[in-house]
Amino acid sequence: MSPSPILELVGLHKAYGSLSVLRGIDLRVWPGEMVCVIGPSGSGKSSMLRCCNRLEESTGGQVVVDGTDITRADVDINTVRQRIGMVFQQFNLYPHLTALGNVTLALRKVLGKSKAEADKLGMAALEQVGLVDKAGVHPAQLSGGQAQRVGIARAIVLQPKLILFDEPTSALDPETVGEVLKVMRQLREAGMTMLVVTHEMAFARAAADRVIFMDGGVIVEQGPPAEVFGAPQHERTKAFLARYHAAE
């Protein structure tokens, strides 16, 4: 592994008024690693993820992305976000744009690429997620799984150092979950660094390099999937996973 993490969280805190949702998170994500974050609703998983690209502002600590402390006041966050892809729970596609238009928007508006160059890169990204045939289709005509794959293509087209996934399958019907997880596995095999908040326990167990269990705004336990799922050390982890095993 590289001596330098792609993402490093140091003493990360987040509070909404008197409610503390992150209470000193320390985390490193290494190049090419897929880290899956699991835990009950309200444990701070999504807040942590959104602090990683400053969609939410932390109230303490550091977020270092590819060597840059993005919590500094003088950081150009828009430049930093070009290195951090984000895949949302609800897709967040522009309804008036085609699939290709959604994928190429940042290439044209942020990076200033010509339409021809942006379209070429956009089509390559759509090919990577298996949706070249949907390039001219608007989001309303896509299934949930297809819309989410467009969201992934939009993230990878900028060739980020890191992609954040915020429960990418929770809004999908069971039939389309598999096609999104397949693309994520392919990205992992291609060496993409990914931090994934998920409720898909079987996916986390099979695909992650490391699993993190969060509860109450802290990391309770982390380790290889076989250890966290097969021999959890903390009583809170055991109780959470017992419900997962019972549902299998």
Descriptive notes:
The chain is of the alpha/beta class and 248 residues long. 37% of the residues lie in helices and 24% in strands. A six-stranded mixed β-sheet has the order 6-7-8-3-9-10, sandwiched between helices. Strands 2-1-4-5 form a four-stranded antiparallel β-sheet, with helices on one face. Helix 5 packs parallel to helix 6. The two termini are 34 Å apart.
Give, in spatial order, the strands making up the sheet with the most strands.
6-7-8-3-9-10
Rg, rounded, reads: 18 Å
Q: What value does the average pLDDT take?
A: 93
Give the strand content.
15-25%
What class would the helix/strand composition place it in? alpha/beta
List low-pLDDT spans. none
User: How far apart, in Å, are the first and last alpha carbons?
Assistant: 34 Å
Give me the number of helical elements.
Answer: 9
Order of helices and strands: EEEHEEHEHHHEHEHEEHH
Helix content: 25-40%
* Count of DSSP strands: 10
Label the overall shape. globular
Largest sheet properties: 6 strands, mixed
Short structural description:
By secondary structure, the protein is an alpha/beta fold. It contains nine helices and ten strands. Helix content is about 35%, strand content about 25%.
